[in-house]
Amino acid sequence: MGALCALFLLAGGFADAAPQVLYGPGVSEADAAAAVKGKLDEPAFAGLIWDRLDVGGNKAVVVGAPAQRCAKEAPRPLRGELLVVRTSMLDMEYGGALDAIDAIASRIACYAEDASAEDLYELYFLRGMAAFNEDKPAEARRSFGQAAALDPSRAWPSEYPPTAQTVYLDALRDAVAKPPAALVRELEGGVSLNGSADDGTPRLLVGGHLLWADSSRSGLWVSVPAAGVPEQGIILTTAVKLMDGLLAGNNRYAPWLGALAAAEGWDEVALVSQDGVVVFRGGAFFGLDGKPVKQIVEGAVVARPPPKPTTIAGLALLGVGAGTAAAGLGLNLASFNEGLPEVGQLLPDRTDYEDSVTQNRAGLGLIGVGAGVAVAGVVIAVVGSIEKTPQVAALPWLVADESQVVFGITGRLP
Q: Among 52, 66, 188, 249, which is disulfide-ready with 285 (CB 3.0 to 4.6 Å)?
């Protein structure tokens, strides 16, 4: 971006409302006024854009969903906080458990660095149980829904009676009603999502999600709204990259500016730098001539999910099968050639001939075994690549003697 830049916000709602002006680092109010002279009518200056971002330049920020940042360090790790909650639950002091959990939830972003997936899930599950026992079914369903959004694959804990299970299952159905959004990373370093490493798999269901970025040591509680998120997903970036993208008129950052404009009641947002002026309206950027700003596609650091275990197992079986079949074919051809006499020579004796026949049959058997294993590998690899969770288990087996070869696969397909 240019050395001097300013962010200008045109107030909406009333035709005669004064345009609002925000300006970036290194730009004075006088510089901003000179940049918009003759372009905006009677602008009002609202201060530095950094006051709107409210974070340091390398801190992680989210585009596409509301996010809560840690304001004050937590007194102890989440696991320690849960000890108090568990004690209240065991003593059947459900009101006290709700108060304790709500206090933790109010600063949940502060636990992002060392919160485990199990502890995070338990926090909201216990809130659902406490609310249910306090005869607050609506609260229970919301809390169970939050727990399910964090990890919808968990079964009902066996240590709890099934009295609230119906409410939980209703909340679970609500949580998975819409497909999860993807997290698109524009910062280097490790990222933790809900207590486990982000692997690129879309996991952001409607509800809250805990993010931790190693590079900037930033914790965020991101709330995915029921109305949905932008098609591009939720972007995790830095304040500097967000600022640069806005000033360049990059539409991938438009949701952040759209949320700010909606909160302030602005209809148009003009961004000015030494490179020119772009205007934001209707969720996209335009030039002063009304033409859309040409978009520059920038790469993002997006973790790709690793191959599923079933896919790996299938490919391994395919390789073993192909190798076995090749070995069988070689043995078969070699024994066939040994059993044929050369021109002008006597037939081989009975013993050598029977040995060749045995080797030939063994080669054919290995070809069959290899083909079977390869086919099984293909099936398992294909099924494993399309299923949502690994549900395939297979073990090939082989029994052979001098006269026969028997091959089979024991396992389970979905």
A: 249
pLDDT, position 265? 82
Determine how β-strand 183-185 pairs with β-strand 234-238: parallel
Phi, psi of 305 (to 5 degrees): -65, 140
Residue type, 124: Y
Q: Which two tokens stand for residue 1?
A: 């971006």
**How far is 326 from 324, CA to CA, in rounded Å?**
5
User: What proportion of the chain, given as a percentage, has pLDDT over 70?
Assistant: 66
C-alpha to C-alpha distance for 362 and 399, rounded to whole angstroms: 12
Q: What is the pLDDT of residue 14?
A: 42
Reduced to 3 states (helix: H, G, I; strand: E, B; else coil), residue 74 is coil
pLDDT band at 284 (very low <50, low <70, confident <90, very high): very high
Which segments within 106-225 are labelled E, that is strand?
183-185, 191-193, 196-197, 207-213, 218-224
pLDDT tens digits, 165-204: 999 999 999 999 999 999 999 988 999 999 999 998 889 9
Q: Which fold has domain 65-229?
A: 1.25.40
What ranges do the domains of the chain cover?
A: 5-59+243-287, 65-229, 309-412
Phi, psi of 19 (to 5 degrees): -60, 140
Does residue 282 contact residue 28 with C-beta atoms inside 8 Å? no
